[in-house]
Amino acid sequence: MLDTVIKLIGDHPELWGRHRVTLALAERGITVSEATVSRMLPVARERIAIERNREERARRSRRSRELAAMIRRDERDARREAEVRQWFEQNIHPGITAEEAIRRISVVLSETGWKIKTTDLTPTLRELADAYRSAVCNDPNLPPEDVWLRESYRWQDQDHARVAALNHWVKRYRRAAHARDGESGNLPLSSGPGVAFSETSGG
Predict the structure, then answer these.
(1) Do 40 and 112 lie in a common domain?
(2) In a domain, 75, yes or no
(3) Would residue 196 count as lying in a domain?
(4) CA-CA distance, 77 to 194, in Å (whole number)?
(5) Considering its fold, how many domains does the chain have in total?
(6) Model confidence at 194: pLDDT above 50
(7) What is the average pLDDT value for the chain, to the nearest integer?
(8) For 142, phi and psi rounded to 5 degrees?
(9) How far is residue 124's CA from residue 117's CA, in Å, rounded to a whole number?
(10) Is residue 177 within 8 Å of residue 183, measured between CB atoms?
(11) Of residues 42 and 6, which shows the higher confidence score?
């Protein structure tokens, strides 16, 4: 009976008076005196308050965890962007040709045995992916199997499209290196995931 009263007034806060609760119970086929309801209401109210406090603490704890996770993500993204910018400053400068710049970027993007993921993206890598898509899509001789790059501008998740473009770049570079060297194993591969921009990769 008490659980029924708790659910009733929990679902309908306006039914806290003993008379209204008694009538609401009667409408649900439960006959009980107002005196009995009057004794149950304080206990029901206390349990409801305890449950609401528990839920509020859980919400606050969840918000705190989400905020901490967001701060950690922002710090991680800032570190990665700083690494990428530093690599570009050290390796891509006015003294090299466009072909050499592309080669160096291709090498560093390939320095992972894993596919690039959306969590690897930084503002600079997003710009790089967009520039690559633009260059490839403007190619009048774009192979049929690469037409999806043009269609990727209509994808709902543009970060997913950018990652796909960067992985396409890496795949083309490795295929070209394989044709040159006879085996793709000549490419430098790291043992962990992520784009390895933390070390200089030019030469």
Answers:
(1) no
(2) no
(3) yes
(4) 12
(5) 2
(6) no
(7) 80
(8) -60, 125
(9) 15
(10) no
(11) 42
0.85 cut: is pTM over it? Answer: no
State whether 123 and 56 are in the same domain: no
The Cα 31–Cα 33 span in angstroms is 7
Structural domain containing residue 129: 95-203
> 114: pLDDT confidence band, cut at 50, 70 and 90?
low
Q: What is the DSSP letter of 175?
A: H
Cα 135 to chain center, whole Å?
27
Q: Considering just the CA atoms, what is the radius of gyration of the chain in Å?
A: 31
Of 48, 67, 86, the residue that ends a domain is 67
User: What is the Cα–Cα distance from 187 to 17, expressed in whole angstroms?
Assistant: 77
Q: Are residues 107 and 170 in the same domain?
A: yes
Indicate the SS3 state at residue 101. helix
Q: Tell whether 56 and 118 lie within a shared domain.
A: no
Task: Write out the two tokens for 94.
Answer: 């006015």
- Residue 57's pLDDT is 93
Residue 191 scores a pLDDT above 70: no
Residue 146 CB partners (closer than 8 Å, separation 6+): 136, 168
> Is residue 166 in a domain?
yes
Residue count of the chain: 203
